[in-house]
């Protein structure tokens, strides 16, 4: 029996609030390899004062009280974490918009035609949307034993009272995951506002209370091609997903639209570039656009679209060029506010980028894998340029182009001189931003996943340690470890988001020091590697179990009474909170690669992963500070580290 999507939702445990003393113990432990002894002593004194202070204990009590008040709808961190995104004023592209790239569909060349690939993926997304509304998407569960995934167990589970479903699965070594983020996958958008944005959903996916009526989802998606925006209906009048061949004809009509193929001057302003601007600038420009009813209608259609899809005219082939194009392109044909933006290049290569405030990897990976599988299952089709659908009427503002079929409309804009100037400024700004971004993407056949596990090591631990050693080799002048972030999902909890795995530890520091020593023996190296790997595994489990310290300290520091506390303002805290290595990984057979932008001027961002063929890394950094940050040097350091670690594992 298939379990409904929200089967476990009301039985998931609540995200725990650690004690102040436990969080400070973890803080000081993971701080120790990052700072000097003098700075560590100062931080220890400040921590001792903090743990007994009335302000800190009052703030802790407030967090606990708040958690009790909101526990039926969110976690104690939910709004604080969401607000941290919505109040950020930097542009969305590169700064906070990750990307994932699909593996090519090599089963038949016809399937890699741009319109065909777009149609197959869009049809898959429309079906996923309908299944989500019907709660027909299986609830995600992390299984540690095969028995928990059997159909018999699911049949038995269907009779369990809602309150004990998750605890019953825990006993079988299975951990149901939160699905609350799925509600923002479709028809949600981030509206720019002065000082703080608004996350707006245009479709109530699931009823909030008994008796609520769920409206059908909007029928259209937003399609971007060159400087133009279109709406394309993806559902038929009867509510079913439009077939792939019908969608393909609609996309072919956009690719053949004379107004963009002829480059007519009155359509030269790329309105979508405004979504790449800093948030206050875009908020002001949007307010100007909304003064005209034509623009207001077009913005309503963009905001309510199920998602955005870009028919990109480029066809990057180098790994680094693909990553750059997926992250930002030229900034003129992406709608960065949307929940996610599918990107289809002229070569048929595809991927997606998503707006990060609403969700993390758990929801987007479920969608990503479903799209890849569904699209892969489609049969190849011969191109047909004459087909179009007239089975339903357009939900969009009218278009003057008679060449477009009934279910495709070009959005209309009436731009004032002020809006035209804003668009030009946005184009200049995104060009300047992208010119500062450097990327290095590479693969290695070392440390393949299955072989690494067989040797008794965690693949993630060894790849993270290769980054620690690689950084140490790249920056030999630094005696301390880099403050390192790895994302851990806390989706095993009700409305869980993420926690930080603090990769840099006393054990990882000793490991890097040992491997760099010319006098260290093979046995000393493998001993250091085992200790560091074991620490990483423990840290990862703690973070996923709600036993990290970063999010708790973030919540405490967010309280006005504690923002000026010495603990959060000394030199050690500055080092701790200035991330030098920001890392994240996702594993999937659908995934060719992924990445995200650097989180600071002196930081590297690293998207990485492993498979049975080896491992891959996508390093991003801001150029112009090669004395401090140089991804090309880091790449060489990581490659050397991979060799060193592989050699040590082989001698084990």
Describe the protein in words.
The protein has 652 residues and is an alpha+beta fold. It has 2 domains: 271 residues, Chloramphenicol Acetyltransferase (2-Layer Sandwich); 271 residues, Chloramphenicol Acetyltransferase, CATH 3.30.559.70. Helix content is 40%, strand content 14%. The protein has 21 helices and 18 strands. The strands form 4 sheets. The chain has an 8-stranded mixed β-sheet, with helices on both faces. A 6-stranded mixed β-sheet has the order 12-18-17-15-13-14. It has a two-stranded antiparallel sheet with strand order 2-3. The longest helix has 23 residues. The two termini are 46 Å apart. About 2% of the residues have low confidence.
Indicate the percent of residues in helices: 40-55%
Q: Based on CA inertia axes, which overall geometry fits?
A: globular
The profile of the biggest β sheet is: 8 strands, mixed
Assigned CATH architecture of the largest domain: 2-Layer Sandwich
Q: Kindly state the mean pLDDT as a whole number?
A: 93
Intertermini distance: 46 Å
Radius of gyration, in Å, reads: 25 Å
Report the top-level CATH class of the largest domain: Alpha Beta
Total strand segments: 18
Instruction: Kindly name the structural category.
Output: alpha+beta
Can you count the helices? Answer: 21
The low-pLDDT segments are 386-401
Overall structural domain count: 2
CATH topology of the largest domain: Chloramphenicol Acetyltransferase
Going across the major beta sheet, what is the strand order? 11-7-6-8-9-10-1-16
Within CATH, the superfamily of the largest domain carries the name Chloramphenicol acetyltransferase-like domain
Strand content: 5-15%
